Amino acid sequence: MIAYRPAMSVDRNFVTKAWLASWRDSNTAGMVSVDTWFEVMTPQVTARLSWPGVRTVVAYESTNTDHASNAYGFVVVDTEDAPPLVYFVYVKGPYRRSGVARGLLASVGISPTTRFNFVCSTPIVSQLERKIPMSK
Predict the structure, then answer these.
(1) Which of the chain's termini has less CB crowding within 10 Å, N or C?
(2) How many CB atoms lie under 10 A from the CB of residue 33?
């Protein structure tokens, strides 16, 4: 059964690598060369994860107690801003389009039909625009 928990230190590597690998080829990733992407962006993402008000929530399989392997995905948000900032949402490929992302947003108090700002968009997000009509 899918459950949601605040990210733990064991999740940091998963969150950072998945965020960077998924976002690297996006139009919103800026002009950082692919050759230096991880070198340049890893410190940026790591720093953002530690900013005041920024929190990460992980969707995980509650029947698997190994926190290093039980994650379905994560959301990184700052809900102290109005509207909230969604930095990134990631769901592992096999679990996409099964409600995990919607559950992650709900776990941080964001409805896909209410206004929020999406910071690091990917091509998948543009395919889902009808499901998140108020995101900017």
Answers:
(1) N
(2) 8
